[in-house]
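As a warm-up, study this chain.
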Amino acid sequence: MTSQTELNLAPLPALLIDAAVEAALKEDLGRAGDITSQATVPAAARAQAVLRARDDGRVAGLDLARCAFRLMDPGLQIAVVHGDGQDVRPGDVIAAVEGNARAILSGERVALNYLGHLSGIATATRALVRATEGTKAKICCTRKTTPGLRAFEKYAVRAGGGINHRFGLDDGILIKDNHIAVAGGVARAIEAAKGTVGHMVKIEVEVDTLDQLEEALKIGVDVVLLDNMTPETLAKAVALIDGRAVSEASGRVTAERVPAIAGSGVDFISAGWITHSAPCLDIGLDIDIEPGP
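Now compare it with the structure written out below.
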């Protein structure tokens, strides 16, 4: 079973988690709180609940789920069975929650929204990682993330065994086709970038053809993004690069196509859909009323 240690999965800062989860709870609770639970559940009622996987997948986002319950009631007891970065099968218990029933019910949806969404991203990433086993290619994400959730979604990619591309526009220079069009060509764009940034900033350029690649390599860049190339063209591109730059493939990356893409010898494969379109992992909360005296 995969663990956080094996993935070297550092936890997210509590400050980020608390702020995001608090905002989500405020959105859900509105102006009057959980009026359904208030109307139907006695204030002192206690319950035991489990977060249970209903499908095969990989867990990510438990700290956000725990935070949702903790903010509703710091007295809730939460026990983790399968942590972030671990695989689960249908029926597996991910975590157990015990304490005030109203608090559990009121925090349930926010907890499951985060946990299901991020576990879905981790699961999608895991599928691509497994499909490239035996090659040197690493799966990475893009900036195609949900506004406000980038740090969490990129964390989920790491939980799935992938790695992160840049976090924002200020991380590094990525010269794409539109930059090239405005700048007047590959060479002009790279030269302008080299004359602007400091020595700690890497430069990556997107190329669509082998001619553009040769032009970029002649000037020199840190990374080349080989966009929407066939596996055969990618292999030619890797041979042309010959270790002079890091190679990254992108475009139409699916679980079916990724083995051939990885087989071309590229260093990295970036996929936007693993953050913007990955289906949620189906996780439910099953609750039992704690027996009375």
